[in-house]
Write a structure and sequence with these properties.
- With 318 residues, this protein is an alpha/beta fold.
- Helices cover 34% and strands 16% of the residues.
- The protein contains 10 helices and 8 strands.
- Strands 2-1-3-8-7-4-5-6 form an 8-stranded parallel sheet, sandwiched between helices.
- The protein starts with 9 loop residues before the first strand and ends in a 15-residue tail after the last helix.
């Protein structure tokens, strides 16, 4: 596996976006994660942490997409996408390890496109692990709702109808095989058709039920392990079962358990591959006394090395 870069500063960047979702409240997500103790947890693990606050809401951008396109609040999303892209690219250029605190999943239009741009200029291969109940592979023509948090995966793999979101910024789409959707259990009919012919790697809850998260995650990490990759993890709260984390507007029964999610984070940390992170779709307005925010903060701490006990290599061979 790739050598771990524990010397990098973790840069927390709040992205209070909710224009991509149907239910208001995601703009409170960054504040809830801080209140749940995320910066303190990371510092207690020995990491250098810089909290850059929240990105200010940008001006909307007038944008026309193709006829038949259905996109709610498109000017707001276009403004956010460009502002987030520029901010994310600046953090990456400064050699930080950015953790983007959302906000709905439309923020990934900007964060992952910045990762791809950064990788292109530095000779690295961008690989994205998308932990989500949904494929987010709709387009403006196929989306039943028009909510843009259901479209970033299509954009990131090159859907031409969404390319105007970034304006003239440099963006080379991900190779479909470098996008790994993990935990799927709710996909729209047209989205399913697009996804089936896309070449994107998909792991649904049926496969997780059959083989377990440890086997499937280790297989994935073994396949992508290389010194020249940049692994971006995009964690949507609805990846988790609603009984674990109810504070999300798009909950789907049958998601990952608390321990399954922590195991994934621990395996990702041990791989040494993670170079940037999205934490999205936390809606404190729908939460129960901060429960979901706390779970997400604890999962992020596991991603950066928090364990119950110190592990020794020989323990994995028993």
């Amino acid at each position: 596996m790739n050598g771990r870069r524990d010397d990098r500063t973790i840069a927390l960047q709040g992205l209070p976006v909710e224009a991509g979702a149907a239910t208001p409240g995601c703009l409170m997500g960054p504040a809830a994660l801080r209140t749940a103790g995320l910066p303190t947890m990371l510092r207690e693990l020995g990491h250098r942490v810089e909290d850059h606050g929240d990105l200010a809401p940008p001006a909307p951008v007038a944008l026309d997409l193709a006829a038949g396109a259905r996109c709610h609040r498109l000017p707001e999303i276009a403004g956010w996408t460009r502002a987030i892209h520029d901010r994310a690219h600046a953090l990456l250029r400064d050699d930080a390890l950015p953790v983007f605190l959302g906000g709905d999943h439309s923020l990934s239009f900007g964060t992952v496109s910045a990762v791809a741009r950064h990788c292109r200029r530095n000779g690295r291969r961008p690989v994205v692990l998308w932990l989500d109940a949904h494929a987010d592979f709709n387009t403006p023509e196929t989306s039943p709702s028009g909510n843009m948090h259901g479209m970033p995966a299509a954009f990131l793999t090159g859907d031409p109808s969404l390319r105007p979101l970034l304006g003239d910024r440099d963006f080379l789409p991900l190779a479909p095989a470098d996008l790994h959707l993990f935990g799927l259990r709710s996909i729209d009919a047209e989205e399913r058709r697009l996804l089936g012919r896309s070449g994107v790697d998909t792991i649904d809850m049926r496969r997780i039920d059959e083989f377990g998260v440890a086997v499937l995650m280790r297989r994935l990490l073994d396949r992508i392990a290389s010194r020249d990759i940049h692994l971006h993890v995009s964690l949507d709260l609805d990846f988790l079962d609603p009984s674990v984390a109810p504070g999300v507007g798009t909950s789907v029964p049958g998601g990952a358990t608390y321990r399954e999610a922590h195991l994934i984070m621990e395996l990702l940390h041990e791989s040494g591959l993670v170079a940037s992170v999205d934490i999205v779709e936390l809606n404190p307005f729908l939460d129960e006394r901060g429960r979901s925010a706390r779970v997400l903060a604890e999962l992020t701490a596991s991603l950066f090395g928090r364990t119950v006990l110190d592990r020794r290599p020989e323990e994995d061979n028993r």
